[in-house]
Amino acid sequence: MDYKELIGIRRSIRYFDPERPVEREKVQKILEAMRIASCAVNAQWNHAIVVNRADIPPEILEELKMPVAALVQELAPVHIYCYLDPTVIQRFKGSRLKELVDAGALNPTHGWSHKFVDEFVYPQVLEPLSHSPIYPIFAAFDCGGAGTQGLLMAFELGLGACWTAFNTDAAKKLLGVPDEWIPLYCMNVGYSLESREAGGQRPRPDFAELYHEGRYGNPFRRDPTVVKELENDKVLTAPAPLPGRKEEIRKIARKLGLPD
Q1: Range of 169's domain?
Q2: Mean of the per-residue pLDDT values for the chain?
Q3: Are 53 and 186 in contact (CB under 8 A)?
Q4: Any domain includes 186
Q5: What does pTM read for this prediction?
Q6: DSSP bridge partners of 161
Q7: Span 131-149, mean pLDDT?
Q8: Domain CATH for 165
Q9: Start-to-end C-alpha separation, the chain
Q10: Among 1, 250, 33, 55, CA closest to 146
Q11: Above 90 in pLDDT, residue 1?
Q12: Residue 18 falls inside a structural domain
């Protein structure tokens, strides 16, 4: 699928076929997309644990559920639990940056060398950063980028997906993750029971409310010609709710034995 169309058709899918398994190779491709995502200082804070819903003991699955996402978690055949490992910087002490130097990604033209990493970047930047209160926020931004690449790969492969929170205590009991790991979100993955459009593109705040130019309070001017081009490229699609959406949901509800 063309990238522009891919980001235009992506939706948070909340109705999965609970009986249709996801092929293992597709799950691997999601993880491969996450692994190659850009990450500051090549730290790769993001970790993920894949669990088939059918392998989760029923009592643990009930504990994992959050009130606003319980049905999504119950329907999705695959759960990918994402975590942030904050110990990375102190464990690797700049060695992953040196890998970028050796690979020609960080070069002497920009001042990079093994000596620069050892004598300046690690002791004066990275090590202090690892003790800063903003450190988890900084690292979580990169984990989100990795997760988004995995999410888009799921849709490229014909799957649906949705991020949800989860009960972190129940997850720790199930997954045995290290105490230091910070829980992020769970990517619920499966084959969608919803139509490709899933009711239309979701409502979002006004463009001028979100984006500024030069300084805060000066909205970035939105060019109608660009908007039209993006509509033609299927990045911007028909807004929700599309005609027939309520009937679509009623049909899915009846299929799954849910109240409609």
Answers
A1: 3-86+130-193
A2: 97
A3: no
A4: yes
A5: 0.96
A6: 12, 189
A7: 96
A8: 3.40.109.10
A9: 33
A10: 33
A11: no
A12: yes
Q: Is residue 213 a part of any domain in this protein?
A: no
CA dist., res. 92 & res. 34, Å (int): 20
Is residue 30 within 8 A of residue 258, CB to CB? The reply is no
| Structure token pair of residue 167 | 């009960």
Tokens representing residue 215 in the block: 């300084």
Reading the block at residue 133, the tokens are 């209160």
User: What is the dihedral angle through the alpha carbons of 194, 152, 189, 181, rounded to the nearest 10 degrees?
Assistant: -150
H-run or E-run covering 185: strand 182-190
- Structure tokens given for 64: 């994992």
Omega prior to 86 cis, within 30 of 0: no
Indicate whether 102 pLDDT > 90: yes
Amino acid identity for residue 107 in this structure: N
SS3 223: coil
Which residue in the block uniquely carries the two structure tokens 């130097």? 101
Task: Return the sign of the alpha-carbon dihedral for residues 151, 157, 162, 166.
Answer: negative
**CA 196 to CA 230: how far, in whole Å?**
19
Q: Which of 210, 6, 176 is nearest to 81 (CA)?
A: 176
How many distinct structural domains can be found in the chain?
1
The residue among 61, 70, 75 whose CA lies nearest residue 252 is 75
Asked whether residue 260 carries a pLDDT value surpassing 90, the answer given is: no
Q: Which residues contact 163 (CB under 8 A, 6 or more apart)?
A: 12, 147, 151, 185, 186, 187, 188
Over 58-86, what HEC string results? HHHHHHHCCCCCHHHHHHCCEEEEEEECC
Cα distance between residue 172 and residue 70, in whole Å: 18
Angstrom distances, CA of residue 128 to CA of 89, 100, 162: 10, 21, 35
Closest CA to 159 of 3, 53, 4, 11: 11
From the number of C-beta atoms within 10 Å of its C-beta (0-12, 13-18, 19+), residue 232 rates as exposed
